[in-house]
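In response to the reviewer comment on reproducibility (Comment 2.3), we provide here a single inverse folding case reported in full, input and output, so that an independent group could reproduce the run without further information from us. The structure tokens appear first.
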């Protein structure tokens, strides 16, 4: 706001030098008064979607300066296009105004941002803010352990260890408990970082499977094969050569845009599809009687249950004894239900699940706990899906389709894992386009 006030004054005096502008002229200018609300709001929204307002303690000052410069240049360019082109500027004056705005905006924001980040680093260095870490290992290596303990990044503190053999090694750190309870131990001790010390890839996989539902950063000591294959993402320069093997699924700015698109598109869809909802509800009531909607408990993000909403496509007595999966010629599916499934119209009420925050437009297919328990016996990595919200559509549904048994669910799982490990806005858009094509071709079931 301070930058904008100064720039507004500069633009007013650009053509009249010397010229003194009074406070009353500012006060009586409605455009200026509206801009005091609109311009700062524009910048705050832009910075929010760029990922500036989270994890201040873990930010890099150098990266923040570069990122601020790029976002400031973009924001100033947008505002200049909409606000400055109507002014009676020569190209030289326009360039001068835009560059002045960019330099002031970048300088002011960068200075205060660096102050905040530096203060955060100061708090971490003095123990005011602590990143709580634990070490998990299968075969103990004293030299590796000492390297980790002595060279942790600032603000990180080792609070204990977990041994795969479930034995207390008598180390200077507390023994926290059994490896089988790793996920619960992380929650109980409020752990932020888990450092895995092992040369066994199987142990890595077993460990990260156990931590799939925990909001923690998982790190591993880098070795030469990892570095050459670039299989992990580097974390920080200081301290041991860690690879962060469990980073966020998407950059923060993409995650913010994804959630906005989820809510925005779902709200528009609910409004536009209201006549369709009413027609389907009427047809279902006349043809089948009973309940129009079908709700069922599914497991979503972080393993939390929610109730999914669909149009009912089966008889009301479809699952009296135990949960069952549908098949291609399932006699339980009604005639209207077959039509809805063929065009995947039965999924449309799930827009309400998105508005409730349970689902996303694109994710993975949420399943029932009964089938998840069977899948987990053969594919414990299913838990990795819990890192994201389930979706109305998914890569698994596009590439594989519906599953008729647990074996097919496991086969489809690899596509959902691929999506989880490669999440991006572009990927989401591609999946949605293919989903629409499937609907238009009537290839659902």
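Designed residues, in position order:
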């Amino acid at each position: 706001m301070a930058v904008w006030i100064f720039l507004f004054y500069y633009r007013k005096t650009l053509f009249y030098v010397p010229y003194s502008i009074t406070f009353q002229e500012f006060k009586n200018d409605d455009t200026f008064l509206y801009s005091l609300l609109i311009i700062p709001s524009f910048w705050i929204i832009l910075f929010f979607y760029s990922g500036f307002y989270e994890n201040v303690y873990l930010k890099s000052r150098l990266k923040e300066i570069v990122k601020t410069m790029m976002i400031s240049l973009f924001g100033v360019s947008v505002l200049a296009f909409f606000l400055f082109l109507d002014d009676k500027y020569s190209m030289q004056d326009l360039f001068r105004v835009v560059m002045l705005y960019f330099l002031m905006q970048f300088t002011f924001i960068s200075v205060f941002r660096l102050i905040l980040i530096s203060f955060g680093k100061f708090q971490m260095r003095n123990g005011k803010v602590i990143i709580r870490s634990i070490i998990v290992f299968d075969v103990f290596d004293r030299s590796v352990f000492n390297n980790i303990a002595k060279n942790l990044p600032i603000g990180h503190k080792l609070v204990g260890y977990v041994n795969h053999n479930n034995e207390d090694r008598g180390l200077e750190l507390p023994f926290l408990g059994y490896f089988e309870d790793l996920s619960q131990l992380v929650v109980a001790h409020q752990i932020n970082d888990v450092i895995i010390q092992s040369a066994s890839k199987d142990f890595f996989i077993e460990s990260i499977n156990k931590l799939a539902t925990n909001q923690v950063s998982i790190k591993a000591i880098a070795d030469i094969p990892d570095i050459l294959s670039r299989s992990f993402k580097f974390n920080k320069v200081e301290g041991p050569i860690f690879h962060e093997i469990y980073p966020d699924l998407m950059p923060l700015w993409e995650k913010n845009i994804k959630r906005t698109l989820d809510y925005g598109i779902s709200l528009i869809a609910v409004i536009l599809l209201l006549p369709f909802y009413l027609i389907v509800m009427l047809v279902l009531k006349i043809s089948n009687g009973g309940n129009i909607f079908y709700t069922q408990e599914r497991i979503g993000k972080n393993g939390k249950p929610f109730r999914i909403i669909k149009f009912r496509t089966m008889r009301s007595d479809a699952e009296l004894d135990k949960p069952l999966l549908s098949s291609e010629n399932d006699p339980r599916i009604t005639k209207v239900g077959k039509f809805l499934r063929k065009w995947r119209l039965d999924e449309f009420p799930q827009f309400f699940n998105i508005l409730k925050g349970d689902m996303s437009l694109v994710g993975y297919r949420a399943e029932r706990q009964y089938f998840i328990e069977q899948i987990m016996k053969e594919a414990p990595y299913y838990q990795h899906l819990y890192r994201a919200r389930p979706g109305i559509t998914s890569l698994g549904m596009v590439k594989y389709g519906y599953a008729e048994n647990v074996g097919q669910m496991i086969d489809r799982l690899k596509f959902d894992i691929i999506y989880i490990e490669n999440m991006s806005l572009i990927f989401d858009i591609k999946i949605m386009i293919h989903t629409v094509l499937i609907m238009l071709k009537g290839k659902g079931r």
